[in-house]
Amino acid sequence: MEMIGKVRRMHRRDKKSVREIARMTGLSRNTVAKWLEAPVTDRPQYRRAAMATKLTPFHDAIERALAADARRPKRERRTARALHEELKTAGYEGGYSRLNDFIRAWREGAGQAVHTTAFVPLAFELGEAFQFDWSEEGLVIGGVYRRLQLAHRRT
To answer: Which candidate, 136, 128, 129, places its Cα nearest to that of 152?
Structure first.
């Protein structure tokens, strides 16, 4: 955005031509002319057309695997490397980094919806719920130190 502002100031305030601005900034004349004619709205962005990749036929399988893994305990989830090996056996010929980028984007977007939170009310009717907990305590019984596992219940 700074460069667009600089180009516009050079043209409007300093009365420089498109060719002079292009020479001074190192930009092409077409770019300078486009920036001078365009309305000032937001930062221009490069938009790449969506193209099919080697990973495209496997998107559904990867999403199913990631959704299943999201519900598993963390130690039982497959890594991106393990998913890459599974896909290679299924016929994927692409690279690991492309798969890793897809997994990262999925976890930031659709993967956020998979994680559900539980609602636990803070107030219960009498007899409706109780607390239960385990603990490990150390006691000296008859002069001998022992570790005991205890169950605690509170109604």
So the answer is: 136
